[in-house]
Amino acid sequence: MSGRQVHVVLPASVDDPAAPSGGNTYDRRVCDGLTAGGWAVREVVLAGSWPRPGPGDARRLAGTLAALPDQGVVLLDGLVGCSAPDVVLAHAGRLCLVVVVHLPLAEETGRPAAERAVLDAGERNSLGAAAAVVATSGAIARWLVRHHGLDPARVHVATPGVDAAPISAGTTGGGALLCAAAVTARKGHDLLVDALDRVAHLPWTCVCAGPVDRDPAFAARIRERVRDSGLAARIHFPGPLAGPELAARYAAADLLVLPSRAEPYGMVLTEAVARGIPVVATDVDGIPEALGRAPDGAVPGVLVPPGDPAALSRALRDWLTEPELRAELGRAARARRDTLRDWRGTVEAVAGALTAAAAAA
């Protein structure tokens, strides 16, 4: 088979507007970009409770891989591929399997230790058997090499791109805050509400745009905490937003806040900076890489330790009370905006990983 043909195995949520995620956006943009670049892309979308597949889910994946021709080049979303190591190992010798890792499975916050151990072991087996691995940030690539003992030559970095966007108008006082993330423990909404409660005497509103059904119990606790704090009129949960609706939220925002406990990259960071919006986020995993620096070395935001609501509240207080800081960070964001890479670079990096894996097979 030609190295310009690739079979792509994706979770069923990839095009679900009710389930927006960085991983889904990444997968879709890569598939579309490979097609535009001349690759023959054969997509297979698999329903299933990934990363906790039932027997039927694993059988569907096995049947999908079994139907592919020998030496076929296959790009597997890690949510699927790393969840079914036995299936991957059974076909790794016959197919050229390349696995995309958006987030190591065991790093999702809140999973029981026993489940994390199973997911971690399965991921190690799948990635060890793959012809190549694509990591969505340098931080995740280094973690995979160190943690799973992978050959660095087989691990390729393809960071997400970002689309050009107009500069956001924002407000004069800096009080329009946006947190664009699923309401889960990993994204740190509990830390955000705690931090906002500490600066409740200052003028601000916060839109928490993202799915609330990924961890319904956690989301319910967050909304209860918001009500108990008397902040229900100031912290809003409009649910998942995409397209023009999300663009309108960015256009109205002064600051993006992302208090994640773990974050392989954080595409919302570059989406904000592409609009000249500064960021307050946690200094964890791929976030510093995504946020980057302006050509003069200035950081277009403030990074705080993960899991520290006091530090987060101090950063928000400084932003809300210091016009000079807002102006400085705004200048840095606009300068960094001009250096962001688009999705063509992402697609070229993935295509390079596929080509290298096929050549080595």
Description:
- α7 (189-198) links the parallel β7 and β8 (205-209).
- The chain has a 6-stranded parallel beta sheet, sandwiched between helices. Strands 9-8-7-10-11-12 form a 6-stranded parallel beta sheet, sandwiched between helices.
- By secondary structure, it is α/β, with parallel strands linked by helices.
- The chain is 43% helix and 16% strand.
- The longest helix is centred in the last third of the chain and has 18 residues, at 343-360.
Q: What's the structural blueprint in terms of helices and strands?
A:
Blueprint: E1 5-11, H1 22-36, E2 40-46, H2 55-66, E3 73-77, H3 78-81, H4 85-91, E4 96-101, H5 113-129, E5 132-135, H6 138-148, E6 155-157, E7 176-180, H7 189-198, E8 205-209, H8 216-228, E9 235-239, H9 243-252, E10 255-258, H10 267-273, E11 279-282, H11 287-291, E12 301-304, H12 309-321, H13 323-337, H14 343-360
Parallel strand pairs: 1-2, 1-3, 3-4, 4-5, 5-6, 7-8, 7-10, 8-9, 10-11, 11-12
Helix pairs in contact: 1-14, 4-5, 7-12
Describe the structure concisely.
By secondary structure, the chain is of the alpha/beta class. It is built from 14 helices and twelve strands.
**Mean pLDDT across residues:** 95
Helix content: 40-55%
Q: How many H/I helical runs?
A: 14
* Name of the CATH superfamily of the largest domain: Glycogen Phosphorylase B
Low-confidence stretches: none
**N- to C-terminal separation?**
12 Å
Seen as an oligomer or otherwise, the chain set is single chain
SSE sequence, one letter per element: EHEHEHHEHEHEEHEHEHEHEHEHHH
CATH topology of the largest domain: Rossmann fold
CATH architecture tag of the largest domain:
3-Layer(aba) Sandwich
In the CATH hierarchy, what is the class of the largest domain?
Alpha Beta
Main sheet record: 6 strands, parallel
Taken from the alpha-carbon principal axes, the silhouette is globular
Main structural class: alpha/beta
Binned strand content: 15-25%
